[in-house]
Amino acid sequence: MDLQRLLAWAEPLFGTITDVLPIIAILIGFQVMVLRRPIPNLGRVVLGLVLVVVGLACFIQGLQSALFPLGKLMAAQLTDPAFLGNTGDQEHTPAHWLDYHWVYLFAFAIGFATTIAEPSLIAVAIKAQQVSAGTIAAGGLRLAVAVGVAIGLTIGVFRIVTGTPLHYYIIAGYCVVLLQTAFAPRSIVALAYDSGGVTTSTVTVPLVAALGIGLSSNIPGRDPLLDGFGLIAFASLFPIMSVLGYAQIGAEINRLRARARTKRRQES
Amino acid sequence: MLKALALPLLSSLRDSLRDLTPILAVILGFQYLVLRRPIPDLVGLLGGALLVVIGLTLFVQGLKLALFPIGETMASDFARKGSLFWLLAFAFSLGFGTTVAEPALIAVADEAALVAAEGGMIPTTDAARESYADGLRLTVAIAVGLAIVIGVLRILRGWPVHYLIIGGYLGVVLMTGIAPAEIVGIAYDSGGVTTSTITVPLVTALGIGLASSIEGRNPTVDGFGLIAFASLTPMIFVLGYGMLV
């Protein structure tokens, strides 16, 4: 392997290291100067940090070398007017919003799939299961978040296709979240709000951005710089709803089960 | 120690494989069934996928060995020390320090500067764009620092999370009405890009550690919510930045 390829391979590693360095500096600074306590299991912690850096570097390198280029190419191909069968005059006979059905399906599928592989969501789900002593299942939480991102992206793509204003959707979404918060079990509220923020990082953002830019540069009257933004906002808003909904459904099922149990007890 | 590591590593490897399957299925399915084109470099794709699986496995192990314990130990040490000032100083530095150099944020800030120049908000020179992007980055980093500070205070005092979040969202809605239209999309997106893969586990463990070491706090109800603040305040601050600059 020549030097240039080696450097290209090492780039995510350097990127991750520069990402981690400020965090480690802050941690060590406060540990040494303010807390003045030794770190327990220092060896394990250092090994863990090395695993985090190497793991994240491999993860990003794998995504960048293989999955992202293909995903971005697909986003461009699916939004191409020629693929949509609309070869006529774009200005006067624009494609109908239903012509984009494959794009909606792609947005839904890629939103779901990338969220399932999102490392920070895995971390939060592990913690949630641990802290709630298993009442919140890590797998269930991640599925709920992934469905939320999938629905959010589909609606976000619909917005770009139809060119309707972004803030109507976001404000309406917040109103739904408000209503759900009033009725959802208290213990899920903070976690649900958190899941909006964790969904969009390493895996989701690059593919979603490519989809937004591909769409807005192929549809007449859309500006990639203006309309390409906003998809990430959909991907962070809808998981809040889906996680609150997931908890509401879970609570409802438990209530029905409990009622059935007492009924059976009364009968016997 | 090696033996204790090997077993969870294997089951974690299986989990990672399962987590990556949907992406591969979507890409292969769309490529062959919808676009009807061959995969340009199937070997490269599988090699990349293998790298992703290995990377995810190592990351999850490192999470449990390092990031979770560090967050929780520091939280309980700060709680024992009992100095509010230092805890809040730590919270701010963690939020600010992890955000200011975040690559996703740098990318969004540069793009935002382009939008601003095109919209006539700033002169179309490189210097003006650079100072706009830097200002935006600093704004978001301060916003995240403050978010962690507010979030930590909330855990200490036991304030219900939804009043703060709903208040914040109302602020976002009101500011959307008066901010320049060009900044709205960027502001909404900036909330999503601030929380990196290393920050999230650390901040989550910090919140849960604090909620578990303080009497009367429930880790599930009070421990989460820090990330939510970190995604909310950047929106408010970026909208404000758009109105001022």
Explain what you see.
Chain A is an all-alpha fold and 268 residues long. Chain A is 79% helix and 0% strand. Chain A contains 10 helices and no strands. In chain A, α4 packs across α5 (138-162), α5 crosses α10 and α7 packs antiparallel against α10. The mean pLDDT of chain A is 84. Chain B is built from 10 helices and no strands. In chain B, α5 packs parallel to α8 and α7 packs antiparallel against α10 (226-244). Chain B is flat. Chain B starts with a helix and ends with a helix. The model of chain B has no long low-confidence stretch (mean pLDDT 87). Chains A and B meet through α1, α2, α3, α4 and α6 of A and α1, α2, α3, α4 and α6 of B.
Give the key terms:
heterodimer; A: 268 residues; mainly alpha; 10 helices; 0% strand; flat; B: 245 residues
Average pLDDT of chain A: 84
Radius of gyration of chain B, taken over Cα atoms and rounded to an integer in Å: 22 Å
Total number of β-strand segments of chain B?
A: 0
* Major protein interface: A-B, 101 and 108 residues
Which stretches of chain B are low in confidence, meaning pLDDT under 50 for 5 or more residues running?
none
* Structural Rg of chain A: 23 Å
**Secondary structure tally, helices of chain A:** 10
Q: What kind of oligomer do you see?
A: heterodimer
State which percent range the strand residues of chain A make up. under 5%
* Shape verdict of chain A: flat
The largest pleated sheet of chain A is described as: none
Which regions of chain A are unreliable across 5 or more consecutive residues at pLDDT < 50? none
Percent helix of chain A, as a range, is over 70%
Helix content of chain B: over 70%
